[in-house]
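Sample pair:
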Amino acid sequence: MAEGEILVEVKNLKMWFPITQGIVFQRHIGDIKAVNGLDFFVRRGETLGLVGESGCGKSTTGRAILQLYRPTGGDVLFEGQSLCTMKGEPLRHMRRKMQMIFQDPYASLNPRMTVGDIVGEPLEVHNLMSGKALRDRVMDLLEVVGLNRYFINRYPHEFSGGQRQRIGVARALAVQPDFIVCDEPISALDVSIQAQIINLLEELQKQFGLTYLFIAHDLSVVRHISDRIAVMYLGKIVELTTRNQLYDNPLHPYTQALLSAVPIPDPAVEEKRKRIILTGDVPSPANPPKGCHFHTRCPVYIAGTCDVEEPEFVDIGNEHWVACHRARPDRTQS
């Protein structure tokens, strides 16, 4: 998928959370660098998968793109317009084009509101419709996501986790967005239900021409749904390429370690495969290592280079982006 209009472009995005000390007079003593300089884009109609360990900044990235968190630095362009400089009514109008499906289907739905109120709320907030037209639209949306249209008067506690996530999907679709951030939408669901939600998202993408940023832990799920995949480690993207290139030719040691942990349903292949075990713990985002953030756990790091010089995030050919000194063809190997 090399051609296509760029819908979302992220430039040097940073999202730092201040660390303060003191009760009355709070002093700023540092920052949690949750997202620390991201560069990527999402083409219209594609699905970009974003994977990495817990705490690497995936969800923060999604929220910063939608301006639920106002970024500390960098810029987010949506259809060529900067979201970071928008405020008030222009930003509110732009939010119609961007929605989010949240991770926890239990916490993301207000237990005091009916399904009709939850799904219809975005339509009321943006003054798109009211009365019978609103009710009919909500009932149609419930049918689109595979729920009975007459569930409109029920409350969230009357539904299973998979049904609740379908309600969340219906709410995201209500204002007919172009771009949806799917923040680990299946991680809280049973495996059998996960496949149903993935299939639903794919059907909706074809039906409505949606663009997804799909955040997940499960690399096999990401491979199934994504066109391109970005691998994130400690606030930075370390590798980004098409799904086939990533799985057939992973270049970053961290990507290689992640893929070595994905089970293969062929016992003969699984037995011969070498498992890469990473040593140590993930460093603190409040004090990331100098040079390459991954060098403290990397089995092939170059002393005097990886621990001193931060690798550039460069395209080494065929839109295969990687931030690793060993993956650079112009660097000497040692």
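The CA atoms of residues 20 and 29 lie 6 Å apart.
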